[in-house]
Specification:
Elements lengths: L16 H7 L6 H12 L3 E2 H12 L4 H13 L4 E3 L7 E3 L7 E5 L5 E4 L25 E4 L2 H6 L2
Parallel strand pairs: 4-6
Antiparallel strand pairs: 1-3, 2-3, 4-5
């Protein structure tokens, strides 16, 4: 997974999604713009959720078309694919800051956590096996406040 930004800006730049797409070397299309807006509205969304948002904006669109756009956004560093174990892949616009995630074991709710310590990678492996490590992914697991309340 690539987390390097292509100099296109950040999620905060969604005031002009066309500018983000062009800066990343992508053609500006209605589907790409709608997917960016969906990810802004629903961070950590899976492809079905993104497709639901895009359909509300554009009408009919296939899940495959949404996947194609998501892969293009991830390939160019505009989005990041997060794959919590046992859950569908989720996508977010925060792609270049090496942050981590906390995931609810009950409902799958996902939230961002600032890098554990220092700069990327914010964790140092005990052995690199000759790899030049440039990113670390950590997933914290637990129960969100709503699911803990439901258990009472």
């Amino acid at each position: 997974m690539s987390s390097a930004r292509s100099g296109a800006g950040t999620a905060a730049d969604l005031d002009d999604p066309a500018l983000l797409l062009r800066a990343a070397g992508l053609r500006v299309t209605r589907q790409r713009t709608a997917v960016l807006q969906a990810l802004s509205a629903a961070p950590h969304a899976d492809a079905d959720t993104v497709a639901h948002h895009v359909r509300a904006e554009l009408g009919t669109v296939s899940v495959q078309a949404v996947y194609d756009v998501l892969h293009a956004l991830c390939r160019t560093g505009l989005a990041r694919r997060v794959e919590p174990a046992g859950s569908p892949a989720r996508f977010e616009l925060e792609a270049g800051d090496n942050h981590h995630h906390v995931v609810c074991r009950s409902c799958g709710r996902t939230a961002d956590i600032t890098c554990a310590l220092g700069t990327a990678p914010c964790l140092t492996p005990s052995e690199s096996h000759g790899f030049l490590v440039d990113e670390a992914e950590v997933t914290f697991w637990g129960r969100c406040p709503d699911c803990r309340e439901d258990q009472r």
